[in-house]
Design goal:
By secondary structure, this protein is an alpha+beta fold. Strand 12 and strand 13 form a beta hairpin. Helix 7 crosses helix 11.
């Protein structure tokens, strides 16, 4: 660190010693070795990786607005923007929000909801810009396999972050009180994670030569974009979801499952077969089911335990349902009942298919075993809080279906294997399904990843 950077960092007690050298180096580069940064120089410095709207919001905080606007900003104010957003108190984050939106922090002043929504959209847009510009393998794998970042979906991600401000995310909102903002900032994990990732990149924190991560976070913080495993053998992957959808779904998973998604099934690759689907998703641990219907709606659910054939419901209250298109919404468990996961095939007395939530024939998600490709989403589902029908129509046809294992693949206990073998001996149809799936995996040359 040069003498100028050392002197600047020494003046700021908000930063840790590790942060001081990175923030000071960024300040020095943006200020052209001066003790103050000009607005035009900072916008130019951040330009390629920041949404223009967010650039304007941040300059409102740094330089002020209206009659109070300053032509330059010093190191302390520059450091405050980073610290308040990454680890600030709720009151500090409220002050940043008000200032960024061109207002003085005042508990009696309401914020226009539309302005707050655009602020969220600008943060989401900047995060996706950073991901797309990354040269690291994590981001490149998703992008090279056809997972895009369409502007409409990025906007929907920001809208989803803002929509949690009120009780009903689909209710019309016009203004935000200071009390609402305080509660929202404390509970909105998605916005906090997006903001942290954005500021860490803008300020160059932990960015070392050769660091390929799109978001160089401290080891304890999760990444919103998981590693994609299992796509290596498929040069032309039929992606129907967007990077914004992956970030949205992943942000709601338990942290232990956010780092890795393991490709298990695609109706376009493995065919429209319930037997193949069932065989490929059993004994895989927690998983994500993503459906696109023929009306273009995209929705699904998180199954926290391995799928298995049986007459009873399985799973736990970590389960949730979600939508990605036309809007991004999530429906967590109510604990009213435990009807989280059900799967059966070739039975005469119970429904044959896959169910998440609700009751037989009235599920949050129901996929028929035969004929495969038909499904339904009920008007109401007491298993999940705030639930609204996921598909456009109560009954739907599949256009696409994907299943991803999330987190590391679980180790199979020897006693479990012996018990499963005993069950399969009494259920030859289920055994045939698993044998078929095993042959499919072998013929495709799909590599089984050992637990990390």
């Amino acid at each position: 660190m040069g003498n100028t950077s050392k002197k600047l960092a020494a003046k700021c007690t908000l930063l840790t010693k590790e942060e001081q050298k990175y923030v000071a180096a960024t300040f020095r580069a943006a200020s052209k070795n001066s003790e103050r940064i000009r607005e035009d120089d900072l916008i130019k410095f951040w330009g390629p990786q920041i949404d223009p709207r967010l650039a304007q919001y941040l300059t409102n905080f740094l330089f002020g607005s209206g009659q109070q606007k300053s032509p330059t900003v010093d190191f302390n104010r520059f450091a405050e923007l980073y610290v308040y957003n990454v680890r600030g108190t709720v009151e500090e984050r409220m002050m940043v929000t008000y200032n960024c939106l061109g207002m003085d922090y005042n508990e009696d002043v309401e914020l226009p909801y539309q302005l707050l929504k655009e602020y969220c959209e600008s943060i989401a847009s900047t995060y996706i810009k950073i991901v797309k510009s990354s040269s690291g393998p994590r981001a490149r794998t998703w992008l090279e396999k056809g997972f895009r970042a369409a502007a409409s979906h990025v906007q929907a991600l920001g809208e989803a972050a803002a929509a949690s401000l009120g009780g009903d995310p689909d209710a019309a909102q016009h203004h935000c009180t200071a009390a609402q903002l305080s509660k929202w900032l404390q509970t909105n994990i998605l916005l906090k994670q997006l903001a942290e990732l954005v500021y860490i990149n803008l300020y160059g924190i932990n960015k070392r030569a050769g660091d390929e991560s799109p978001a160089p976070l401290p080891p304890t913080a999760p990444s919103l974009l998981p590693i994609a495993d299992g796509l290596e053998a498929m040069p032309d992957y039929p992606a129907f979801t967007d990077l914004s959808h992956i970030v949205w779904i992943n942000s709601h998973l338990p942290q232990k499952h956010q780092h890795r998604w393991r490709f298990l099934f695609s109706s376009h690759i493995h065919g429209e077969s319930f037997s193949t689907l069932a065989g490929r998703i059993q004994e895989q641990g927690a998983s994500i089911l993503i459906i696109e219907d023929t009306n273009g709606y995209i929705f699904g659910g998180y199954a926290p335990v391995s799928w298995a054939f049986g007459p009873n419901f399985t799973g736990n209250d970590e389960s949730f349902l979600f939508t990605c298109v036309p809007r991004m919404r999530v429906y967590p468990a109510t604990n009213y009942n435990d009807h989280y996961q059900y799967m059966n095939h070739y039975t005469k007395t119970l429904p044959n298919g896959l169910l998440m939530g609700g009751q037989f024939h009235f599920g949050g998600i129901w996929l028929n075993a035969e004929p495969f490709g038909e499904g339904s989403s009920a008007e109401s589902c007491s298993t999940y809080r705030g639930y609204k029908r996921l598909s456009k129509e109560p009954s739907f046809r599949l256009r696409s279906l994907e299943v991803w294992g999330v987190g590391d693949k679980p180790l199979v206990d020897k006693d479990d294997e012996e018990r499963d073998a005993s069950v399969l001996d009494t259920n030859p149809e289920a055994k045939a399904i698993l044998d078929m799936a095993g042959r499919t995996r072998h013929s495709e040359g799909i590599r089984e990843e050992p637990p990390l």
